[in-house]
Amino acid sequence: MRGRKLEFKIQNLSLDMGETSFENMFLNTYVPMADGDSLKLFLLVYKDLKNEGSVDLEKIKKQLLFDDEKLEKCLNYWVNMGVFRKKDKGNGEYFYEIISLRQLYFGESKNEDSSSMLDISKRKSVMFDSVERIIQRKLTPQDIRRIQETLDEYKQDPELVTEAFRQAKEINNVDVKYVMGFLKTWRDQSIFSLNDLKIKEEREKLLRQKQSKKNIRKKIFTSKNKNSANKSFSQKAREERFRRILEGDDR
């Protein structure tokens, strides 16, 4: 098979027995990294939810030949990866919610017009792509959720996230929690857009230049005063020597 270009085609179906669609973002992110047992569990749970609206875990356990321990391990895997969200019903019972990666990427729609939502969605898509290139790995749902929640809480532009990761990369620490500290610091400084950050950096640059010039002038002034003092002392010494010569008291 090495060196051969293999082609694949989907057969046209004459009988529809049902299909289940999956988000491409899930397939691209988790199929390469998930272990086989956890992936099998997810696929069957997702299929049942999509097609039947409910899940029979006992049936799935029999299909996969899982015992209770293995089932719990696979469920916890997806919870830890942020794909399953464990939620309390309020009566001492709980259920699992399968999150949407698209929803995580683009956030909730909250009474914004469609053109505005489309713009922010495109900018967030660019942001996440840029961040993944910077950190050289796929963002996990936990990463995405943390970034999304930080943006929503601080009301900042997506471009600031990209800049935060770029700066963090320069100091070799791209841990998402650490990078979100950049956004908090900027929020505290009333920085909500990349333009705000550039203005702040330009002001700091001008202040440094101004301080540098001030220090240079101070050094020059100090040097002149020192030279003047030395010159004044030398002049007085010469005048005193000349006076002694005139008085015939030069020793």
UniProtKB/TrEMBL annotation:
- In Swiss-Prot or TrEMBL terms, this protein is called DnaD domain protein
Region annotation (Disordered) maps to: 209-239
Q: Where in the sequence does UniProt note compositional bias of the Basic residues kind?
A: 209-221
The family classification in the record reads: Belongs to the DnaB/DnaD family.
- Which InterPro entries does this chain map to? DnaB/C_C, DnaD-like_sf
Domain named DnaB/C C-terminal: residues: 128-198
Protein origin, superkingdom: Bacteria
Lineage of origin: Bacteria, Bacillati, Bacillota, Tissierellia, Tissierellales
Q: Where along the chain is composition biased (Low complexity)?
A: 223-232
